[in-house]
Each structure stands twice: as structure tokens, then as C-alpha cells.
Amino acid sequence: MQGFTYNTSARWCFMKSDFGDLQSFAGAVAGRVVEVKAQATAHDTETRQKELDYLPSSIRQEARSFAASLATRYNPGSVDLDALIDNAERSVSSGRPVQAVTYFGRALILAGEHSDLWLAAAKTVNAARLKDW
Questions:
Q1: Domains and CATH numbers, the chain
Q2: What Cα–Cα distance (Å) separates residue 27 from each residue in 6, 11, 20, 22, 32?
């Protein structure tokens, strides 16, 4: 993910390869570049749901509800996806699964279509024996 600073008096934009917390300064505007992905079509959603027909409908509904609740549970903040995943993996490696789950939740808001991210989050939740996830 990229960031930028726009100097209003020089009328010049400086691109950055990475960024931390966004801060405001007189005469400057800071921001981040966000990639907006195309929304899944109804056909895509229907196809994926048919692939999961072997699961009981109650489990499928619970999964949909949980995925929809991520945005209210976690705030991805201004950290990019790769940093969130790195932090989650470091937390797992250092024996901090609850912290890892928080990073995974934040990452899933940004990249909910990544099945490997869902799998890593589920394994972490299972290993930590979390009941409310």
C-alpha cells in the first residue's frame, strides 16, 4: 500500500512506498492510496454458495453473519494488509494467539476474499480455544 503527502504551497505530491499513522500538518495533506476491488457479482456469490451445499445451512448462515460482523468487531486502521499479516504471523510465532486473531480480523476486513487468510485465522482461533470467534 502506498501513502502520499501533498504540499499545498508547492502544489507538489510526494508518493511514499509505505506509511505509518496519518498525521496532519499545516500546509500539507497526507493520505493513503487504497485499491478498490470489484464487488462480487450475484453469480459469483451463488456459485460459491453452491460449492458449500455439503455444509448444513445453519453453519453457512453463521459463517455469513460472522463475516458481515468483522467490520464492527475490528478496525483495520491505516496499516496495510501485508503489515497486518506479518504482525499476525509474528504474534502466532511468539505465543500470542489472541493478539494474532485481532490482526487476522483486521486483515480480513481488507482482504476477505483470501481463503488462506481465513484458514490461518481459523487455525489460530482453534489453537487458542477462543469461544467468541
A1: 2-33 (no CATH), 42-128 (1.25.40)
A2: 8, 10, 19, 15, 17
